[in-house]
Design brief:
Elements lengths: L11 E3 L2 E3 L4 E4 L3 E6 L2 E6 L24 E3 L2 E3 L4 E2 L8 E5 L2 E5 L24 E3 L2 E3 L4 E4 L2 E9 L2 E6 L12 E2 L8 E2 L7 E3 L6 E3 L3 E2 L6 E5 L5 E5 L24 E3 L2 E3 L4 E3 L7 E3 L4
Antiparallel strand pairs: 1-2, 3-4, 4-5, 6-7, 8-9, 9-10, 11-12, 13-14, 14-15, 16-17, 18-19, 20-21, 21-22, 23-24, 25-26
């Protein structure tokens, strides 16, 4: 009614804190609150982001920031210049939360010397050589000369001799065959026999001999080496006869008694008792 005064705005009491009428503040969880007529009204914070690649809100903040850029999940500082992950020689820059990229302009046609670092794709020049056309990188040999290798490099032909391996044989054993580019080693001549340095005797291949011990036999191998092997005696008897120059004792030739040799069925007196008569029996 006219002449009646309006009651003063009432403050708000929220979470133990008194808020002035019309006051505005931010609660945890990015809630924007205001005090109106003694009541607290809250709503989600509305963020206005004026850039294309904002960074996430800092700790304790609610809205993303345009001081820096977030590009392909990577945070970039203000003014940072970088290349995207797909490469292709594109250059990007971060300015006020916006990412601007620039790709090179490639002229049409071929390029003289391609390399992995080049940004523009190109078709290397072909080579025209002695009436033939070769693609870039092609390898070929000269007509009738297989020992020379040529390669086409961006319109230019470079030729070089075929590299040969190092040989470990002396010069007189090296041989260059017809149609070959590199020499090879001849096989050393086969040995004619075995030469023994200790006594100066040479044995032909396949020769068997005893080097002085009748129980050891040696043979001359085809490669000029000597192989020796000892003989194992397996026949035993109580009174064997040892024949000079023979490895194993002979048990069938007779008997040995007190240093004397008696033939089979031969009788003789005992050396211990003259009344005893002994006989050699080969069994």
């Amino acid at each position: 009614a006219p002449g009646t005064s309006m009651p003063p705005p009432r403050p708000c009491w929220h979470r133990g804190i008194s808020r002035e009428p019309g006051g505005r503040w931010t609660e945890p969880g990015c809630q924007s609150c205001t005090c109106q007529g003694g009541r607290v009204l809250c709503d989600a914070v509305s963020c206005s982001v004026p850039c294309s690649h904002p960074l996430p809100a800092p700790a304790g903040g609610c809205c993303p920031t345009c001081t820096g850029c977030l590009h392909e999940g990577v945070a970039r500082a203000e003014g940072d210049v970088f290349s995207p992950s797909d490469g292709n020689c594109t250059i990007c820059v971060c300015l006020a939360g916006n990412v601007s990229c620039l790709s090179p302009e490639c002229p049409p046609g071929s390029c003289p010397s391609p390399s992995p670092a080049d940004c523009c794709s190109c078709n290397p020049e072909k080579c025209n050589f002695r009436g033939h056309t070769y693609a870039h990188g092609a390898r070929f040999s000269l007509d009738g000369d297989d020992c020379t290798t040529c390669v086409c490099q961006a319109g230019e032909v470079e030729c070089s001799f075929t590299p040969c391996p190092m040989l470990d044989c002396p010069q007189h054993q090296r041989h260059l065959g017809p149609g070959q580019c590199c020499s090879t080693c001849r096989d050393p001549p086969a040995p004619a026999g075995c030469f023994l340095d200790d006594n100066g005797v040479e044995f032909p291949v396949g020769q068997i001999w005893s080097p002085g011990d009748p129980c050891e036999l040696c043979i001359c191998q085809a490669d000029g080496s000597v192989s020796c092997q000892r003989t194992d005696c397996v026949e035993t008897c109580p009174y064997p006869i040892r024949i000079p120059g023979q490895c194993c004792p002979d048990c069938s030739a007779g008997c040995t008694y007190m240093g004397r040799i008696f033939s089979n069925n031969e009788t003789f007196p005992s050396a211990l008792d003259p009344c005893l008569s002994c006989i050699c029996l080969v069994r």
